[in-house]
Recover the amino acids of this structure.
């Protein structure tokens, strides 16, 4: 089982999109049984809440299902449970690395956009206070990074039938 966790600040905008898009790609590749996919936030403000309506809208419009997702806060145990942890921005990345310094970790912690280098960006912007176009932009960024992530995992783990680069 390959375990992947997407992390943003509140777990209602960016990381639910990461979880949903990556799950959609994994399902389309017929690899559901190979993966456990989840998302979490570094903060606790929205624990138990569904994804933001903007994330739900853009996901639904593009055929990605976010129903059933509820916000949760990342825990130290996640650093042992998951193989890959994807931070949506530099602040989330720093918070995760700080948590990793204070606990045992086996996870690879990356910035989400490390898997979309052609974009020339390091951080997925937070669309929380922006308009609908912000959610569309975030979807595009996260989708490209999820494709790169799946290709990287396929190459690293020797998964068959997937692009590896």
């Amino acid at each position: 089982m390959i375990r992947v966790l997407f992390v943003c600040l509140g777990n209602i905008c960016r990381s639910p999109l990461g979880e949903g898009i990556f799950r959609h790609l994994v399902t389309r590749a017929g690899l559901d049984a190979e993966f456990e996919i989840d998302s979490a936030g570094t903060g606790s403000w929205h624990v138990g809440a569904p994804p933001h309506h903007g994330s739900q809208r853009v996901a639904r419009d593009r055929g990605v299902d976010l129903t059933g997702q509820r916000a949760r806060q990342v825990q130290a145990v996640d650093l042992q449970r998951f193989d890959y942890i994807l931070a949506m921005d530099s602040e989330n990345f720093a918070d995760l690395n700080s948590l990793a310094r204070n606990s045992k970790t086996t996870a690879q912690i990356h910035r989400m956009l490390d898997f979309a280098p052609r974009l020339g960006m390091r951080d997925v912007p937070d669309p929380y206070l922006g308009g609908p176009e912000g959610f569309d932009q975030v979807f595009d960024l996260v989708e490209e990074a999820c494709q790169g992530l799946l290709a990287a995992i396929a190459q690293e783990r020797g998964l068959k039938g997937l692009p590896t680069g």
Remarks:
- The mean pLDDT is 94.
- The two ends are 22 Å apart (CA to CA).
- The domain at 2-157 is CATH 3.40.50.2300 (Rossmann fold).
- The chain has one domain: 2-157.
